[in-house]
Amino acid sequence: MPKASSFTPDTPFLPVLILAAALSSFGAAPDADAAAETTDTQMETQDKEADDTRATSAHPEYVTVKSRTTADGSTGRTPGGGLMPHQKAPRAQSGLTRDYIARQSPTESPVALIANLPGVIYSANDPLGTNDDQQGLSVRGLDQTEIGYLFEGVPAAPPLFLMPYTSATADTENISSVTLTQGSSDAASPLYNAVGGQLSVHLSKPKRTASGFMDLSYGSYALNREFLRLDSGEIGHTGVTGFASFSYRNASQWRGAGDSPRFHVDSRLLKEWGKGSSASLIFSFNRQRQYYLRAPSKAQWKAQGTHFNYSRTYTDGDTSYYLLQENARAQTFLAAPVNLHLNRHLQLSLTPYFIYVSGYDGFGTSLDPKTSYQGNQPAGPLQGGVIGANGKITAVATDTFKQAHSGITASLEWKAGRNSLTAGTWYSYYDFSNPSRYAAVYANGGASNMLGHQPILTASGEPLSSYNSHLVQQVNALFVQDSFKALSNKLTVSAAFRAIMVTRTISNALPGARYRNGSSYFSPQPQVSASYDITAHDQLFINGTTGFRAPSGISNYNDRFSVATGKQNRSATSDTRPEYSIGEELGYRHTGDVNISASVFNYNFTNRQISTTSTLNGAQVSESINGGGQTARGAQLEVSLKRWHHFSPYLSGQYIHATIDNNLKSGDDYLPTRGKKAIRTPTFSGSIGLSYDDEHFFGMATVNYVGPTYSTFMNDERIPGFTTANLSMGYRLKKVGFAKSPQIQLNLMNLGQPGYLSGVNSVSFNAKPTTGVYGTRIAGRAPSYFVGGGFAGIVSLSTGF
To answer: What ranges does the record give for the region Disordered, renumbered to this chain (predicted)?
Structure first.
């Protein structure tokens, strides 16, 4: 059997290893109790939390807090086992702390971690939670391309495709917290797609004393994962601290053939001084490769279940051989956030950043050696490839890409008395090159080169291509925000205005295609909010927000041609109008022994952008469908208890009623979709959890429910609701020799679920033949679905030192 192709990123790997070695050699000798102590920052946070619960009380409360932090960062203090940290923002907001993150499988990405928060629908595609390319996420019915993703304040999702790729930015051991804002984003956030909310991931700070942490995980599907972090402590007497970590993970696909190796590095240098001044240098590198899992239609799922996938072995002419369905991605992330406390009134924040991504997506296809086309021009006879018994050339349609994304955010905050005024700007420059190629497949099923360096050529010697695109995008944004406190600081009123300008210029060097295309978008976005602290434990909030999202994907801007016939099957003049949203929200919070967060919301959308996939000459490409207007109304709830006799329960849920506001165009007619329910929006969803931690034995159980979900705008096909359950348990020691807080942990995922349809991969206007508004018979097309992973078990051994 041929070996899987290797993928060498453009980023050199040696400097990363040198950095890790250098950090481990700096700093003072490890403190004997470093792993068990609480850092100054943690102590300040805990003291503030305690102060918040006692503030302005008529009768002072005397509370004794026993603080402990284990080697994996958990404290046991967050309500709901880490699922419900206290929030004060005047909008619906949920989060995760180390108490929850550390109890989950270390293979899970932040997108998988937030599955139990209210409003979140996570469509898993593998039980280990590792597949960024093939997983679904929606919040209040809005998909992951409508959720802004920030990593340490940096917009970390690819600016054109907007998929978050959260596992590429940090290992879970280095994530200190995750915050999800449902339905809106902060006016100061450097985002232009956050109509559905904002996901913020925060990297842990370096420790003040030299130390280390190691985590080894093994389990189902031949999983092996190793993680090592080294903290330098203070470097000399500079006040600078740093850490570097390295991890390796590999596992077999849970269905079908193939594996998924991943290499990852995180590092951070930090200097803090004065009253709130800091400077940090953050670097991460990620390289991974995997094979696509075949997304079934409902009929294919009923016929074959989890056995519907790509072929394990190659036969002549087989375009569904798994080695031909490969994708690889390497990402380098660099950011340097700086916060300067200029004086008692002024605070300046600057964050320059740079992200570079390269890789490819491959899909098996076949070509006619004589009658294939390059755009609208005949390309044959083709050069290269093996002509099979069917007279066709079996090939890999490779979608290669290079993305360079740089930018800077800057803001200046002025505080005087009860007033706080902030003004800022954001600029980003994005360069994306995307030439497609066709790689020859040998008689044994191996591909010549997945990066397209040895492509199939046309008769004139040019690489055969379906598109040869280059895009440049620039974003300019300005914002101003003012907050005023009144009534003994119980009332806070805020108003903000943000203006975003997005300019895209696209070229396509394919014969017959429009060479130059592009678009410009301008969006004014006002926001207002108010919160009132009824007591030290009770808060009311209200807000009105607006949001904007430009269409995702490059396919909408390119002319498309069939490589088999040369006929144009899509024009670059497709609908590229941006999505715009207006939302209102009213909520209530209570903190104490019982913690409650409840809110009701209403949203209206115009030009709702629906992300989906389509097939172009054998390759799967991302695109946006204009879903017209949409209205969504609903309510969400979170309830938890503080730890009581080592137990802490959690409950969350959402009800939403989302409908399409108008009939959608299909060809020369319209489908009668007005009043139909929105796709990817189950009416009910929720989860319950229970955690236990007595400082030695610990565990957590969660159960998640997702209701039936429509996959077509005509509501003529849906998937049934499903329930998943996860369990973790373990035992922790305090100190054994040099090992600090060593522990063993067992994670069991998808208990009782051998496989299920977990979400919608590609949507359809209608699955069944339908009569349009003007009498046209409109053919149906079957949607495809994500298949939720089967059962998996993982054992992890970890320790600080």
So the answer is: 32-92
